[in-house]
């Protein structure tokens, strides 16, 4: 991350942005009462000797707000896909109708909802820790510039304040995402 003050700030901003994107990806995997095709993204099925995501061997779409449909592209893949979904840790129970698999989303119990909000908060905390690590790294590089006399004390102080403002904005964004996901999980 060495270089000039603008380069250090730009790198920090980029890394913090990546942390937020990673959080969005993790939150998308956390199940709510509503069905969405992305929930099956982490389920892999054996296909000609290699494990591939279901989306690579079947068309995954929504039938309604609580049901996902999985339409295998090849005959004979249905039972394999059904088994993979059943054995995943998602707690789903697919039902086959000819070639089509219907995957109803069970309603979440109050206890399961509370557990999921804990998972959401924990995921948000991990993202904040990553953002703070980026801030620490940026500040270390700024201090090194000052020590090597490549920046004045005023420039270094100003840059640290800007990195702190960036950190605050990013953490506020993380909090907003976490609160939104919590509300989504708790909605019946």
Question: Quick recap of the structure?
Answer:
The chain is of the alpha+beta class. It has helices spanning 5-29, 77-87, 110-147, 153-186, and strands at residues 44-47, 50-53, 58-64, 67-72, 95-97, 100-104.
Please state the average pLDDT score: 88
At the fourth CATH level, what is the homologous superfamily of the largest domain?
Answer: Ribosome-recycling factor
Number of domains: 2
What form results from the Cα inertia axes?
elongated
Q: What composes the largest sheet?
A: 4 strands, antiparallel
- Ranges where pLDDT stays below 50 over 5 or more residues in a row are none
CATH architecture of the largest domain: Orthogonal Bundle
Counting DSSP E segments of at least 2 residues, the number of strands comes to: 6
The largest sheet has its strands arranged as 3-4-6-5
C-alpha-based Rg, rounded: 23 Å
Helix content: 55-70%
CATH topology of the largest domain: Topoisomerase I, Chain A, domain 4
Distance between the termini: 46 Å
3D architecture notes:
There is one protein chain. This protein is α+β, with helices and mostly antiparallel strands and about 190 residues long. The chain folds into two domains: about 5-30 and about 110-185, Ribosome-recycling factor (Topoisomerase I, Chain A, domain 4, Orthogonal Bundle); about 35-105, Gyrase A, domain 2. Helices cover about 55% and strands about 15% of the residues. It contains four helices and six strands. The chain has helices at about 5-30, 75-85, 110-145, 155-185; strands at about 45, 50-55, 60-65, 65-70, 95, 100-105. It has a four-stranded antiparallel β-sheet with strand order 3-4-6-5. The protein has a two-stranded antiparallel sheet with strand order 1-2.
């Amino acid at each position: 991350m060495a270089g000039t003050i603008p380069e250090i700030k730009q790198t920090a901003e980029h890394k913090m942005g990546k942390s937020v994107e990673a959080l969005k990806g993790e939150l998308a995997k956390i199940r709510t009462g509503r069905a969405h095709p992305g929930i099956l993204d982490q389920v892999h099925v054996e296909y000609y000797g290699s494990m591939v995501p279901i989306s690579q061997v079947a068309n995954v779409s929504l039938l309604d707000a609580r049901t996902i449909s999985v339409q295998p592209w090849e005959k004979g893949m249905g039972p394999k896909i059904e088994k993979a979904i059943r054995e995943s840790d998602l707690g789903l129970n697919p039902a086959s109708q000819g070639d089509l698999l219907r995957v109803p989303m069970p309603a979440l119990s109050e206890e399961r909802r509370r557990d999921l909000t804990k998972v959401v908060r924990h995921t948000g905390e991990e993202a904040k820790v990553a953002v703070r690590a980026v801030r620490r790294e940026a500040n270390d590089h700024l201090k090194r510039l000052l020590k090597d006399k490549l920046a004045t004390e005023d420039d270094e102080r100003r840059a640290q304040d800007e990195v702190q403002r960036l950190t605050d904005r990013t953490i506020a964004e993380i909090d907003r995402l976490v609160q939104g996901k919590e509300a989504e999980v708790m909605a019946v």
